[in-house]
Amino acid sequence: MVSGSEHTPDFADIAVVHWQRERPDLDLRAMGTLARFARLNLVGGRQVDAVFAAHGLDRGEFDVLAGLRRTGVPYELSPSHLAEILLITRAGMTKRIDRLESRGLVTRRAAPEDRRSLLVGLTPEGLAVIDAAVTDHTRNESRLLDALTASEVDALDGMLRRLLAHVGAAGDEGHGEGRAPTV
Length: 183
Hints:
- By secondary structure, this protein is mainly alpha-helical.
- The protein has a single domain, classed as Winged helix-like DNA-binding domain superfamily/Winged helix DNA-binding domain (Arc Repressor Mutant, subunit A, Orthogonal Bundle), CATH 1.10.10.10.
- Strands 1-3-2 form a three-stranded antiparallel beta sheet.
- Helix 2 packs antiparallel against helix 6, helix 3 crosses helix 6 and helix 4 packs across helix 5.
- The radius of gyration is 20 Å and the shape is elongated.
- It starts with 10 loop residues before the first helix and ends in a 16-residue tail after the last helix.
- One of its GO terms (biological process) is response to stress.
- InterPro entries: HTH_MarR-typ, MarR/SlyA-like, WH-like_DNA-bd_sf, WH_DNA-bd_sf.
- One of its GO terms (molecular function) is DNA-binding transcription factor activity.
């Protein structure tokens, strides 16, 4: 493992050196770090998506199944509650539920307390798929962080929490069709 400033220059270092030459008036300290973070998100995201694809899922479908599974028995939530916890629009949630329902992984039923409301729940097949997928997903996530020690992972986690709080993303309630948290 490389520590401190002892490292082989990478794509970000090269870009920063070029910018320093062309624009020495700019503070470029964050540029390399954020470029590496973006590249990690891109490359790591592809590896995460490959695990989901091996289970016949895309990231959004995984998120819906995982959202239902981690709530516990009976593995049911309203579509609006699912949309809220996954930070997506209700229309986006409806599309995901439609796809999962057509594949027999979730069902919709009237809520017992209000028949105008719906509950979305895992089918036995959906439960089996998400349990297998989340097992492989957690193994893959651990593998992605294998280059770091446990204390480095803890330190990175703490720094990311602070950065997210600083930029306001930790409490972002903006709903959109961007990537939802895959947890």
